Structures are given as structure tokens and as C-alpha cells.
Amino acid sequence: MKSSRLKKILLWTVVSALGLTIAGVLGISLKVGWSLTHPVRQHTALPASAGKLFKPREVSFPSRQDKIVLRGWFLPSGNSNKTIIFAHGYGKNRLQDDVPADAIAVALRDQGYNILMFDFRGCGESGGDLISIGQYEKEDLISAVDFMKKIGRQGDHIGVIGFSMGAVAGITAAAEDPRIEALVADAPFADLEQYLTENLPVWSQLPSFPFTQVILNTMPAVLHLDPHKVSPKRVVGKIKAPILFIHGTADTTIPISNSESVYRAAPGRNRLWIVPGAKHVGSYKVQPKEYMQHVLDLFGQMK
Questions:
Q1: What are the backbone angles phi and psi of residue 207, rounded to the nearest 5°?
Q2: With 70 as the cut, is the pLDDT of residue 15 above it?
Q3: Which H, E and C letters describe the chain, residue by residue?
Q4: Quick one: average pLDDT of 72-99?
Q5: What's the pLDDT at 41?
Q6: How far, in Å, CA of 114 to CA of 18, rounded?
Q7: How many angstroms separate the CA atoms of 145 and 20, rounded?
Q8: Which positions ≥6 away from 105 have C-beta within 8 Å?
């Protein structure tokens, strides 16, 4: 009797400990998944020094995905019928201060391109509170194309320049929307599921087993996000528009092998410009003149 009772107590203890362990792993995984998709918002504030150069017009439009209000700036360039849409990176806003995007915007506007800069959902001044690392941002970007087409002549020809997550949104959007006539993809990742599998342990400082797979498996159910759906290298072959891939050799956030992988999968009129010593989205800072020349050459293919 005593032996039987002892076995039951031991079994209960083991089951309870296992249950607590599972609950702990699940709780930590959910917390990490939530933090990943809800980074601290960077509010958009135009530097005082850029005000006279920019002279932006405040604009807003709904995302076709779920009608979230997206806010941004439109910078006209004379009577131009060509517009470049900027797509920022994860946790950033329309200014993408680590590039910085405002300098590129002014340079492009001075070369005869209208500029649309906007904040993705959950970023800057736009609505929403969840960042999907490319899944819904693709829809936000296509919504920006919709907005420009409704404006009229200024949206006759549309190009996109994207940074990091914005480059991913640019690739996946262009794979679905032929209205995007040219694309600059600065430091995209190749496949979100693969990227998170390799990098979540670094971001979370948690061991890969069991946390990485638990986080990836709970994201679709809890956050309605599916990393498997965000794969530039899988869809880039559908794009007929010319693409310029840009990546720095010193990028430790998203290694250059990502752009190389997507570039190899991309048919047609595409180029990969590798910038020695440039960190993540840092190519413009390292070689600003060359950067602008490559970008202008690419957008010059829009007719």
C-alpha cells in the first residue's frame, strides 16, 4: 500500500513539474512573440533642419487589409508623373533615420520624382499596434500604390525603395502588383521563417530548443501571423519589373547571403550591388554618390 501510494505521489510530482515546465515555456514564448511584434513605437518628427527642403504634404489612406489608417508625407516634384514610394524597416518610421531616408528622398525629388513616405501599421503615426515583419506590410504598401493611382497623373509610374523589412514588403508586393515598375531592395531577408529560426536565440537570449519552434508555432494561432507566408526568395521569380538589390558586407543584422539568395532566384533585369564595409542599411552612408547613381539608374528604367 505504501509503495503504491508513493508511486502515485511521485507520478503526480513528475506530471505537475512537467506541466509547470510546459506552461513556463509557453508563457515565455508568448511574451517573446508579443514583444517581437510590438516593439516600441518611434514617433515621426521631421528634423527642423529638413523642413525647408522637405515641405511635405500630410496624407493618409486606409490599408486594404483591414482599413487601418496609414499616415505619411507626399513631396511633389513639379509636374512629374513618376512617384517613388518609400518602405521603412522593422521598428522604424518613414524617416528611417539610420539610412537616412530623408536625404535620399530630397535627392530623388530634385531629380524629378514625386515622393511618398508613410509609416507602416503600428509604426510612426499610423494606426494599429502590431508589426507583422512583412506579412501585412505588403498589403500596406499595395495600399500606398492604390492611393497614388487615385491621385491621378502623379501616380502614372510608380517605383518603390525599401529598407530591410520594407525591402521585403517591396519584393512581396511587386510579386503581386505589376503596377510597381521598379524596385530597390536595400538589405532584405530571404525567408522570414528561416531568418527567425536562425536569429531568435540571439534576439531573445533563449536557447533554440525548445523556445524557437514554440514561438514560431504559437504566432499563427495567437497573433494571426504566419512567418511561412513571408518569403521573398519564393516569390521574387514572379516579378517582371527591374530590381536593384543593395547589401553591405558588414551587415550582421541580416547577412549579405540573404540578398544573394533572393537575387539568384530573381529572373530578368536585376542587379546586386555589394557595398564593402557597409552595415545594415548603411550603404548610403558609406557610398552616398554611388548609391544615388545606382538608384537613379534603376528608376530611370520606368517609362
A1: -65, 145
A2: no
A3: CHHHHHHHHHHHHHHHHHHHHHHHHHHHHHHHHHHHHCCCCCCCCCCHHHHHHHCCEEEEEECCCCCCEEEEEEECCCCCCEEEEEECCCCCCCCCCCCCHHHHHHHHHHCCCEEEEECCCCCCCCCCCCCCCCCCHHHHHHHHHHHHHHHCHHHCEEEEEEECHHHHHHHHHHHHCCCEEEEEEECCCCCHHHHHHHHHHHHHCCCHHHHHHHHHHHHHHHHCCCHHHCCHHHHHHHCCCCEEEEEECCCCCCCCHHHHHHHHHCCCCEEEEEECCCCCCCHHHHCHHHHHHHHHHHHCCCC
A4: 96
A5: 92
A6: 60
A7: 49
A8: 54, 75, 84, 86, 115, 117
pLDDT classification of 19: cutoffs 50, 70, 90: very low
What are the chain's domains?
1-37+192-224 (no CATH), 43-191+230-299 (3.40.50.1820)
Model-wide pTM > 0.85 = yes
Strands of 82-87's sheet in order across: 57-62, 69-75, 114-118, 82-87, 157-163, 180-186, 243-248, 270-275
C-alpha cell at 126: 499610423
Mean pLDDT of 126-135: 94
Q: Which of 62-71, 201-210, 221-230 has maximum average pLDDT?
A: 62-71
